[in-house]
Amino acid sequence: MKLVKSLLLGSVAGFAAVAGASAADLPSKKAAPASYVKICDAYGAGFFYIPGTDTCLRVGGYVRAEYQYTPAKRIVTLSAAGATNPAQVSGSLDTSGMEMRGRVELDARTQTAWGTARTFIRLRLTNNTGIRNFTETNNATLANSNAATQGTTLEAASVQWAGFTFGIANNNYAFMPSIFYHGNAWAGFPNGQKQIAYTATFGGGLSATVAIEDKTEWAYQTKYNSTPANGYNLTGNIRYDQPWGWAIVHGTIGNNSYNNSYTTTGALPGALAGLGTVNAFAALNGSTGKTGYSVGATAMFNLPMLAPGDKLWLTANYSNGFLGGLLSSGGLNNLSNSSGGRQLGGIGRVDSSITVTGGLGTLASPFTIGNTTGFNIAGAIVHNWTANWRSQAKAGYVSISPATTTVANQWGSGKLWEVTHALIFSPAKDFDIGLELQYLNMTNKVQNPNAAFVLAGQPGLKEAGWSSKLRVERNF
User: Fold this and answer.
1) Cα-flanking dihedrals φ and ψ of residue 378, to 5°?
2) Could you read off the pLDDT of 172-206 as tens digits, one per residue?
3) Which burial class, exposed, middle or buried, applies to 5 when counting CB atoms under 10 A from its CB (0-12, 13-18, 19+)?
4) Strand runs (DSSP E) across 182-276, as ranges?
5) Is the confidence at residue 460, as pLDDT, over 60?
6) Which of 4, 157, 262, 402 has its CA at 20 to 30 Å from residue 41's CA atom?
7) Mean pLDDT highest for which of 80-94, 348-362, 392-406?
8) How far apart are CA 461 and CA 458, in angstroms?
């Protein structure tokens, strides 16, 4: 052993001597002064000055590995008029799946005479398999892809300065936490919101925000494209921050529209008659518009009397023609399939902010529409048992009521409640290993069901189910 050690030391000394001799033979040149990274503590931990500038930068993100198990459920298709029986498929979906996700973010800030100029960007990349590739369309088509699905999402890209926000940033209506693994009984915007917003600060913890937001980021807003000028919402909130927590009242208003169209064969109508005949001719007969809105209140309370870091959130919202203020997407089934899995069986309910209440969509009988209404109430709590163990739990109730209609096989009222609990172990700061369980219970009604559906006993209108997810996440 001593011989090996002597040989290694001798080799290192020999290389050093050769290197020194070689360097002595080269022309002398003074080394450039080193440029060291300087810490910037004006905006919090993790910021440093970009060398040669007065801009402070923070680099962050996370890596997440998530594993899901959801027992298979019976899927029921609400048959079209004239069908013999509703289609029922048992165990039609995968029961497990994985989602691997990486997110990177850059936060750059520079002080100006009018306040801090902030540029923020956040990029999310995902790779999903199994139940996490679940898709559903038109209440009927159900599929799981055997191949992995990969995607890239620009969650945020904004410039904030002098109270203004331009670009993709957090929505100005939804304020409940995004800490849970399964779908929530409240609205959320994981992909950000395109907007122009202004926030005014009045002192004493009081502030207010008004924003013009792109409607495409809101759930259920699929009808407005026939009137593009109405493709934006006006959203606002008033916020009150205090040591005990904060309270916010928030609202949004926008427009929905529905195309009236007709199809004819033979001679073209009216002024088009001179063009001859066609086998089938479809045309728009204008559009019918409806104003929709959603209002709500959300509060967060610090609970240091239980344990340091404990928090409680509460929210309640009412929607009239604007269901995006209640849920993220897809109707009440959002809670079971927005995250890639169907833990409820039954019929795949898909709600809309407006309902066709009558008419045939023809020149003589254009469609009539009415607003869908609904409300929700929900709460969430985080409790720290020790420095390394915590629990987080939530419960929520959502009710949706489409307008009364004469059209066959249309959704009636729907009600859903859910409870969720997670136990999380943190072996180090910003490193979580958590297991979450969720239970859902949903009851639906159908307006004007066809005879086949009635004879079959109207299956799939009451369903319940549970799902589990294991998540390993490291933030930096």
Assistant:
1) -155, 160
2) 999 999 999 999 999 998 899 999 999 999 999 99
3) exposed
4) 193-203, 206-214, 232-242, 245-267
5) yes
6) 157
7) 392-406
8) 7
State the Cα–Cα distance between residues 322 and 219, nearest whole angstrom.
9
346-347 and 75-77: which strand pairing?
Answer: parallel
Question: Residues 78, 86: contact at Cβ < 8 Å?
Answer: yes
Residue 6 backbone dihedrals phi, psi, to 5 degrees: -65, -40
Q: What is the dihedral of CA 361, 362, 363, 364, to 10 degrees?
A: -100
The CA–CA distances, whole Å, from 52 to 55, 106, 242 equal: 9, 18, 39
Whether residue 73 contacts residue 440, with contact meaning beta carbons closer than 8 Å, is answered with: no
User: For residues 441 and 467, is the Cβ–Cβ distance under 8 A?
Assistant: no
Q: Count of CB atoms within 10 A of residue 451's CB? A: 10
Residue written as tokens 């090996």?
4
Q: Is 52 helix (H, G, I), strand (E, B) or coil?
A: coil
CA distance 53 to 35: 12
Domain boundaries, the chain: 73-99+169-475
Q: Which residues contact 319 (CB under 8 A, 6 or more apart)?
A: 292, 293, 294, 325, 326, 353, 372, 373, 374, 375
CB atoms within 10 A of CB 275: 10
pLDDT digit string, tens, across residues 310-336:
999 999 999 999 899 999 866 677 677
Residue 61 CB neighbours (<10 A)? 15
Residues 6 or more apart whose Cβ sits within 8 Å of residue 254: 215, 218, 221, 224, 230, 232, 233, 234, 291, 292, 293, 322
Taking the alpha carbons at both ends of the chain, their separation in whole angstroms is: 43
What are the structure tokens assigned to 190, written together?
Answer: 């994981």
Compute the mean pLDDT over every residue in the chain, rounded to the nearest whole number: 81
Q: Where are the beta strands (DSSP E) in 20-95?
A: 48-49, 56-69, 75-77, 87-89
- HSE of 395 in the Cβ direction (CA atoms, 13 Å)? 0
Cα 231 versus chain centre, distance: 19
Task: Encode 381-445 in three state secondary structure.
Answer: EEEECCCCEEEEEEEEEEEEECCCCCCCCEEEEEEEEEEEEEEEEEEECCEEEEEEEEEEEEEEE
- The two tokens of residue 202 are 């009045």
Six-digit token string for 239: 């916020």
Q: Could you identify the residue written with the tokens 């907007």? A: 195
User: Cα–chain-centroid distance for residue 48?
Assistant: 31
Provide the CB-side half-sphere exposure for 20 (13 A, CA): 6
C-beta of residue 144 within 8 angstroms of C-beta of residue 130:
yes
* Residue 166: closest CA among 115, 120, 114, 104: 120
With 50 as the cut, is the pLDDT of residue 226 above it?
no
Nearest to 57 by CA among 97, 104, 14, 110: 110
